[in-house]
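ok so I'm stuck.
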Amino acid sequence: MLREVEYESLITNEGADRFIAKLKARYAAFVQERLEGEERVTIIESVMMQDVISVAHMLGMDLGKLRHLALSLQRLLEPLNPRLIYYYHVDVEGQWRFICGIRGNEWGPVKLHTDEDFREAGEVWSRSQAFVRGVIDEWMIPKLIIENRDYRWVENTERVELLVAEL
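replied:
not stuck anymore, here's the structure
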């Protein structure tokens, strides 16, 4: 999303502010493009919201700035009349093990091999997921939050289909 921009740090105000300004500009351009298009429904993958917020959280952005960024992104997306489907993993370490059981232990930025790797990934992602969940809970739009406990994909798919049918 922001490949051509390098960030020294999201811990510093300058680095965080530069990241925030670029990201908000990209979101605004995306929304404007969608509003001018003919499509009635726009599907946005989790990378656009959850992953952006999670990565900024993991890279140490000030939580006040991060909360403000998340709320700003939500406001930017509101003209699209969004509906949200959010998967929240109760056992994050278990989810990493499940995903790696399907994809393998190395894909994209992920390289998880030892029990310690999985424990650490679970702890880090749990903290960022909790932050994202708080922001999602506050967003006053129609949403479906699926707390993934038992990998009930058939049941989860049915719940998603019901939400989509309401569009």
